[in-house]
Each structure stands twice: as C-alpha cells, then as structure tokens.
Amino acid sequence: MHVDNPRMTLGVNIDHIAVLREARKINDPDPLMALGICAQSGADQITIHLREDRRHIHDEDSRRIIAASPLPVNLECSIDPSIIEIVCSLRPHRATLVPEKRQEVTTEGGLDVIGQFDLISNAINLLKSNGIEVSLFIDPSRESVEASERLGAQWVELHTGSYANLYAMRHSSLPHSHHAIESLQLSRSELDGRIESAYSDIVDAANYARSLGLKVAAGHGLNYQNVSYIVQIETIEELNIGQSIIARSVFTGLSQAVKDMKTLCQR
Ligand code: PXP
Predict the structure, then answer these.
(1) How far does residue 14's CA lie from ligand 1's centre (Å)?
(2) Which of 36, 156, 173, 174 has its CB surrounded by the most CB atoms within 10 Å?
(3) What fold is seen in the domain 9-264?
(4) Residue 6 pLDDT
(5) Rounded to an integer, what distance in angstroms lies between the CA atom of residue 49 and that of residue 208?
(6) Residues 243-251: contacts with CB within 8 Å, 24+ apart?
(7) Which H or E run contains 143?
(8) What is the C-alpha to C-alpha distance for residues 119 and 80, in angstroms, rounded to an integer?
(9) Confidence of residue 1 (pLDDT cuts 50, 70, 90)
(10) How many angstroms separate the CA atoms of 186 and 178, rounded?
C-alpha cells in the first residue's frame, strides 16, 4: 500500500552547486542564487555542509546564505571545536552534527554517539547556548537514538545511505556507490532481504526516536526512486536531499541554458 506522508518537509542540500563552482575555482554557479528558486519551488529548508576541508561550501557562503535565506538554514558540521565556534557565530537555525573524514567522498555512516559522547555533549551545549537547534546524524539504531536523547539533541537525522545503496544495487541501472557494489556480491533475493532489513531499521529507529520525544529527519542517498518508501514512514517529518536534486536540475535546466546561448550566438 502506498501512503504518502503529507506532513513531510523537504530540506534541499545545495552543496553540489558549490562543488560545481569549485571545479573551476570561480564565482559561478553561486549557491546563493539557489535560495529563491528552492523557496519558490516548495523547499522548506536549505541545508549546507561547512566541511573542515572547505571542499565546497566556504565560511563566506554560509554567512551569506544564512543572512539571505527566506527559509530556515540547517548547517551540517563536524564536532571539531574550531568548527563549532564558527557555527555558533554564524547562528543558523539548526546545526546537524555529522562525522567527517578527510578522504571520504561523502558522509559515510552516522556519528559515534556512544564513543564520542563527551565531545558531542560539549558541542551540543555550546550550540544550544547560542540559540541553535541541534540535530545528530546517526545510524538508524535504537542505541544511537537512545544516546542522542540522553545528549539533549532536539532532532535526529537517520542515515539512509545503506538503504539507498542496497536499493541501487537491486535496481542496477540506478546510480550507486561503487564501493558498496564491489564489496557485496549478492543474489536478488539476498538483496531484497537486506533492503527490507535496512528499511525496517529506519522505521524502527524513527518510531523509537519519536516515542522519546525527538523530532526525526532522514537523508543521504535519497533519490527520485527510493524516496517513495521513505515517505511512507509517518514518524519521519523531514528529508534532506541534495545530490539527486542538483543532478536532475542539470537535465531539467539544460534545454533553456542551450537556447539562451544559441540566441547569443545568433545575434
Ligand atoms: N543529510 C546529511 C546529514 C548529509 O551529510 C547529506 C550529504 O551532505 C545529506 C543529507 C544529503 O545527501 P545526498 O546529497 O546524498 O542527498
């Protein structure tokens, strides 16, 4: 049965606009230009990730986006004290704490909320004392949810990457993580079992988090195919989606971009 969750809100992660800009180290495309388009198109939140290596969004982007955004800004960041200090001064609406490794292509796995309890606790206290709402990006497990609640976070964001990778492997024409595909050689029925188990981990963690009074978001690797199952989970109230939206916009926008340049060529 397909039950859409009409209350589910959408945070659009615009990091990949800055990824494109950084490919040339120029000012175009400017992620700031996306704010009005996202707001007019139904986005409920802008999400950006100020990475320690500044590989896409820079401090100045964050400052300008937070100052200009008509929508609440959810700033993802690591728990590194120097980053937390910057985030406190930027004062986004929400900070989502994520694990960060220098070499990773994207955020792999959730925060170690049990092993890094004290460090995370310090970061949360600082952020909250600056009036910033806190979310923790965690693996979908009861242990992580329970530790997040003890840490005093207002939100948890459940990492949907395992579900998304398995879904892409099952429907192999979809984009997927090459790492995941190399390490798993599974039959279709084994994959179905793994998808079901990854999905039920998300459902269980979401329901448990809600029962503890936490607000629940989810994200990572969600796209125009796999999102249809996630929106059926009524205890999840927000999705944060980036790569698939920006990737699609290349093709939905390409026709107009070519026409505009052709017009100039013929002048
Ligand atoms: N949520 C969090 C916490 C993330 O770190 C990311 C990736 O930056 C996303 C959501 C969006 O993931 P994707 O770009 O795969 O949609």
Answers:
(1) 10
(2) 156
(3) TIM Barrel (3.20.20)
(4) 67
(5) 27
(6) 243/13, 243/16, 243/106, 245/12, 245/13, 246/14, 246/16, 246/17, 247/16, 247/175, 248/224
(7) helix 142-151
(8) 9
(9) very low
(10) 14
pLDDT of residue 176: 63
Tokens of 107: 């955020």
More confident residue, 191 or 186: 191
Q: What b/e string do you get for 39-55 counting C-beta neighbours within 10 Å, with b at 16 or more? A: beeebebbbbbbbeeee
Record the tokens describing residue 6, joined without a space: 């009409």
pLDDT band at 174 (very low <50, low <70, confident <90, very high): low
Write down the pTM of the prediction: 0.94
In the three-class reduction of DSSP (H, G, I as helix; E, B as strand; rest coil), residue 146 is classed as helix
Q: Which phi and psi (to 5°) does residue 209 adopt?
A: -60, -45
What is the rounded distance in angstroms from the CA atom of residue 211 to the CA atom of residue 209?
5
Catalytic residue chosen out of the listed positions 49, 56, 159, 176: 49
How far is the centre of ligand 1, averaged over its atoms, from the C-alpha of 239 (Å)? 9
Q: Which of 53, 138, 220, 224 to mutate to test the pocket of ligand 1 (most atoms within 8 A of CB)?
A: 220
The domain segmentation of the chain, as residue ranges, is 9-264
Torsion from C-alpha of 29, 32, 35, 38, nearest 10 degrees = 20
* pLDDT for res 177: 63
